[in-house]
C-alpha cells in the first residue's frame, strides 16, 4: 500500500498544473498611476552646496591625492591674492601634518592630514569670516573684471566642505587686521541644505602674529612626492611668483624655504567694465533692466568700456533707435537689432591695466631659482582679446645642464647582451602651465598650452622632436596666461579651453623662444669648434717657442713668448666669451653663473666667435711679428718715424739692409740664417 501511494503521488506530480498556475497566463497587476499633483509635490530646490556635495569631483576632489593638493592650492591662492591686493609682499607658511589616532603613522601610509596655511596679509573683518569659509559662491572676485587667482568664490569654502564630508571636522580660522586689533578665532561648517555657515565657536584669542590670517583644515588625503604633488605645486608656485617668500613644512623631513628673489610687487590690476564684444544677447537684456542710466545712449557709454557718447549715439542711429529712449523699454526685436549693431561696430580693444603679467625679468629670476640650465629666455606677448576679454601670454624657456651637473662622475656602463642596442637619450621637455600665476598640474593633454607646444616644429630650432610628441632634450617650457577671465574647461580649473586666439598667441611666443634657443645652440656649437681650434694651437706653442729659442742661441725669454702666443690663440678663438659659453669661467650675465640670457634688449653673455673678430692681419702673420720682436732688435725707423710693416721690409731687415736715408752697413753672414 505504501508503494502504491508513493507511485500515485509521483504520477500526480508529473501531471501539468492547471491554467491558473501558469505564470505566462497570470493577469498583470494594473500600473499605479501618478498624478501631476503628486509629481509636483516631489519637486524641491537644492542648494549649490548640496549639489557639489554629491559632485565633488567637479571641484577637483576626485581622489585623495588630488584632494590634498586642491585644499593646499585654494588656501595659498587666497593668501597671495589678499596680500597683493593690500600692497604687502607675501610671506606664506604651509604646514602639512599627519593626524593619527595615537599610533605614529608614516606619511606615505597616512590617510588623514591637517593643512595649516598662514599669511601676513591684511586679515579679514570678523563679520565676513563665516561666509568666506563656509558659503559657496561668496566672494568679491566674481563680479569684478580684473585679474585674480580665484574667480568663482568656491575654492576655500569647497575645501572646508570636503574636510567636513571626510572627517567631520570644522574649519578653524584665526584672523587679525592689525597690531592693535584683536585676533578672532572661528570654527565653522557648512549647512549643505541651505548653503549657509554654521558657527561652532567664536572668540578672541592671543596670537603672536601682528596681522594676517591662518586657516586649518583636517581632510582625508594621500601624501606622495613626485609629479602632481603638493611639493611640486609649491615649487612651481615659487617660479611664477618670485616676489613671494614661501616656507613649507612637509609631513616628513626638514622644512623647505623658497626665498624671495624679486623684491617688487606686481602692478595692481584695475577693475574695468565689460567690453561690448564680450556679452551675449541675454546678458544685454539683463543689463538693460538693471542699469541706472536713463537713456540707451547713456547706458552704452556708461556700462561698457571703450564706448564714447558719440559712438553710442552713432550705434543707436544705425540700429534706428532713439538715443534718449529708456533702457527698460527696449525689448524684443529692437533689442536684438541693437545687439547686432553693437557687434558689427568697430570698437577699440579693451584696456589692459586690468591684467598684471609676471614680466620677463621676473620669469627669468624664477626659472633660474628652481631650474638648473645653461640658457634662459622669456617672451611676453602684446595684449590680445578673446570674446571681449583681454589676455597676455608669457613664455619662458630654460635649456641645458649646469657644469656642476655635467661634471658628475658617470656610473660604469653595464655590459650589453648579444643583440642589445645602446640606449639613446630619451629625455623629453617638461611643460609647466600657469593661469593667473597659478600652476596647472592635471589634464595636461586637454590644455590649449600643451597642444600649442606639441604643434610647434622644434626641429627648426635645432631640437629633436618625434611626430606628435614633446621636443627632446634637457628643456623646461614655461607658459603663462594672464586674463580677467581664464576660460577653464571645468570648475576644477585644471586646463585652459582651446580658443583660436589663445592658441595663436601661445604659438607665436613659443616660436620666438625657439628662435632664440636655436641661435644659442648654433653659437654654442661654434664656440665648441673654436675651443677645439685653441687646443690645437696650444699643442704647437711649446715646439714653436723651443725652435725660436734654439735659433736665438738659448737667450730667448721663453715664458714671455709663450704667454704672448697663448694670448693670441685665445683671442683668435673667441677669448673669454668662448669660455663663458662653454661654462669654463663660472660666471654669466646678470649675476647668473653658467648661463646666457636672451631678452628683447639683446643677448647677454653671448659668444663672440672668431668669425666676428675684426683683425688687421692673419694669425700666422701676427704670430710671426711676435716672434720677430722677441728674436731681433728694434728696426730703425724711416721717414717720420714710421716702422716698416710690409713683409718685404721685414725681409730686408732680416738680411741687414737699411731703408733709404740711413747709413749703410756691411752685409753680415747671418743673412742665410734669416732666410731659414
Unreliable stretches (pLDDT < 50, length at least 5) are: 404-425, 589-595, 605-624, 626-676
Give the DSSP E fraction (strand runs of 2 or more residues).
Answer: 15-25%
Mean residue pLDDT: 79
CATH class of the domain at 50-258: Alpha Beta
Annotated CATH architecture of the domain at 50-258: 2-Layer Sandwich
CATH superfamily of the domain at 50-258: Histidine kinase-like ATPase, C-terminal domain
Structural class: alpha+beta
Number of strands: 16
What can you see in these coordinates?
With 676 residues, the chain is an alpha+beta fold. Among the domains are: 50-258, Heat Shock Protein 90 (2-Layer Sandwich), CATH 3.30.565; 276-344, Helicase, Ruva Protein, domain 3; 360-406 and 426-520, Ribosomal Protein S5, domain 2 (2-Layer Sandwich). Helices cover 36% and strands 15% of the residues. The protein is built from 20 helices and 16 strands. The chain has helices spanning 2-14, 36-42, 48-54, 64-85, 129-134, 155-167, 230-240, 281-290, 296-303, 309-318, 332-344, 360-370, 403-406, 448-455, 500-551, 558-572, 576-581, 619-631, 647-655, 671-675; strands at residues 91-98, 112-119, 171-176, 183-191, 196-205, 212-220, 245-249, 256-258, 375-380, 384-386, 389-399, 430-435, 438-440, 475-483, 596-599, 602-604. The strands form 2 sheets. Strands 5-4-3-6-2-1-7-8 form an 8-stranded mixed beta sheet. A hairpin with a 6-residue loop joins strand 7 and strand 8. Helix 7 (230-240) packs antiparallel against helix 12 (360-370), helix 15 packs antiparallel against helix 16 and helix 16 (558-572) packs antiparallel against helix 18 (619-631). The longest helix has 52 residues, at 500-551. The radius of gyration is 39 Å and the shape is globular. It starts with a helix and ends with a helix.
Amino acid at each position: 500500500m505504501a508503494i502504491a501511494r508513493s507511485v500515485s503521488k509521483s504520477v500526480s506530480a508529473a501531471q501539468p498544473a492547471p491554467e491558473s498556475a501558469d505564470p505566462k497566463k497570470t493577469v498583470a497587476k494594473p500600473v499605479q498611476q501618478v498624478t501631476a499633483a503628486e509629481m509636483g509635490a516631489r519637486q524641491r530646490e537644492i542648494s549649490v552646496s548640496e549639489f557639489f556635495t554629491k559632485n565633488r569631483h567637479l571641484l577637483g576632489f576626485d581622489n585623495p591625492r588630488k584632494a590634498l593638493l586642491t585644499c593646499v592650492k585654494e588656501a595659498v591662492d587666497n593668501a597671495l591674492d589678499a596680500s597683493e591686493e593690500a600692497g604687502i609682499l607675501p610671506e606664506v607658511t604651509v604646514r602639512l601634518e599627519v593626524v593619527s589616532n595615537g599610533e605614529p603613522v608614516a606619511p606615505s601610509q597616512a590617510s588623514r592630514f591637517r593643512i595649516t596655511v598662514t599669511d601676513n596679509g591684511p586679515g579679514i573683518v570678523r563679520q565676513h569670516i563665516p561666509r568666506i569659509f563656509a558659503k559657496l559662491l561668496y566672494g568679491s572676485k566674481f563680479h569684478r573684471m580684473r585679474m585674480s587667482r580665484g574667480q568663482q568664490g568656491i575654492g576655500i569654502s569647497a575645501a572646508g566642505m570636503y574636510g567636513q564630508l571626510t572627517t567631520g571636522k570644522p574649519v578653524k580660522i584665526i584672523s587679525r587686521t592689525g597690531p592693535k586689533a584683536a585676533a578672532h578665532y572661528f570654527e565653522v561648517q557648512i549647512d549643505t541644505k541651505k548653503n549657509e555657515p554654521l558657527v561652532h565657536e567664536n572668540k578672541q584669542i592671543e596670537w603672536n602674529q601682528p596681522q594676517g590670517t591662518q586657516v586649518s583644515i583636517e581632510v582625508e588625503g594621500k601624501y606622495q612626492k613626485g609629479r602632481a604633488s603638493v611639493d611640486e605645486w609649491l615649487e612651481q608656485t615659487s617660479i611664477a611668483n618670485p616676489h613671494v617668500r614661501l616656507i613649507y613644512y612637509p609631513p616628513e623631513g626638514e622644512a623647505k624655504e623658497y626665498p624671495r628673489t624679486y623684491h617688487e610687487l606686481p602692478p595692481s590690476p584695475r577693475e574695468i567694465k565689460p567690453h561690448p564684444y564680450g556679452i551675449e544677447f541675454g546678458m544685454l537684456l539683463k543689463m538693460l533692466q538693471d542699469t541706472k542710466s536713463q537713456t540707451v545712449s547713456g547706458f552704452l557709454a556708461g556700462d561698457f568700456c571703450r564706448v564714447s557718447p558719440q559712438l553710442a549715439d552713432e550705434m543707436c542711429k544705425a540700429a534706428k533707435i532713439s538715443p534718449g529712449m529708456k533702457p527698460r523699454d527696449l525689448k524684443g526685436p529692437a533689442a536684438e537689432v541693437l545687439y547686432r549693431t553693437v557687434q558689427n561696430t568697430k570698437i577699440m580693444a579693451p584696456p589692459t591695466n586690468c591684467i598684471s603679467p609676471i614680466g620677463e625679468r621676473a620669469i627669468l629670476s624664477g626659472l633660474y631659482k628652481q631650474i638648473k640650465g645653461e640658457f634662459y629666455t622669456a617672451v611676453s606677448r602684446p595684449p590680445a582679446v578673446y570674446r571681449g576679454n583681454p589676455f597676455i601670454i608669457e613664455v619662458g624657456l630654460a635649456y641645458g645642464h649646469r657644469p656642476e651637473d655635467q661634471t658628475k662622475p658617470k656610473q660604469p656602463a653595464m655590459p650589453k647582451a648579444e643583440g642589445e642596442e645602446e640606449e639613446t637619450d630619451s629625455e623629453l621637455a617638461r611643460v609647466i602651465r600657469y593661469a593667473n600665476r597659478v600652476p596647472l598640474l592635471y589634464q595636461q593633454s586637454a590644455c590649449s598650452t600643451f597642444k600649442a607646444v606639441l604643434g610647434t616644429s622644434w626641429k627648426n630650432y635645432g631640437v629633436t622632436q618625434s611626430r606628435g610628441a614633446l621636443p627632446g632634450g634637457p628643456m623646461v617650457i614655461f607658459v603663462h596666461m594672464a586674463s580677467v577671465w581664464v576660460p577653464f574647461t571645468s570648475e576644477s580649473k585644471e586646463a585652459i579651453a582651446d580658443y583660436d586666439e589663445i592658441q595663436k598667441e601661445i604659438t607665436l611666443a613659443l616660436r620666438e623662444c625657439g628662435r632664440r634657443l636655436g641661435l644659442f645652440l648654433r653659437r654654442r656649437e661654434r664656440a665648441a669648434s673654436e675651443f677645439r681650434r685653441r687646443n690645437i694651437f696650444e699643442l704647437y706653442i711649446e715646439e714653436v717657442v723651443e725652435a725660436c729659442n734654439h735659433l736665438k742661441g738659448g737667450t730667448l725669454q721663453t715664458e714671455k713668448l709663450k704667454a704672448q702666443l697663448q694670448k693670441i690663440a685665445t683671442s683668435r678663438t673667441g677669448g673669454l666669451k668662448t669660455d663663458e659659453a662653454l661654462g669654463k669661467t663660472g660666471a654669466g650675465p646678470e649675476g647668473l653663473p653658467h648661463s646666457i640670457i636672451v631678452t628683447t634688449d639683446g643677448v647677454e653673455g653671448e659668444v663672440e666667435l672668431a668669425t666676428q673678430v675684426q683683425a688687421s692681419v692673419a694669425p700666422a702673420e701676427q704670430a710671426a711679428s711676435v716672434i720677430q720682436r722677441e728674436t731681433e732688435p728694434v728696426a730703425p725707423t724711416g721717414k717720420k718715424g714710421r716702422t716698416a710693416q710690409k713683409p718685404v721690409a721685414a725681409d730686408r731687415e732680416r738680411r741687414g739692409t737699411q731703408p733709404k736715408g740711413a747709413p749703410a752697413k756691411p752685409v753680415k753672414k747671418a743673412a742665410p740664417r734669416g732666410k731659414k
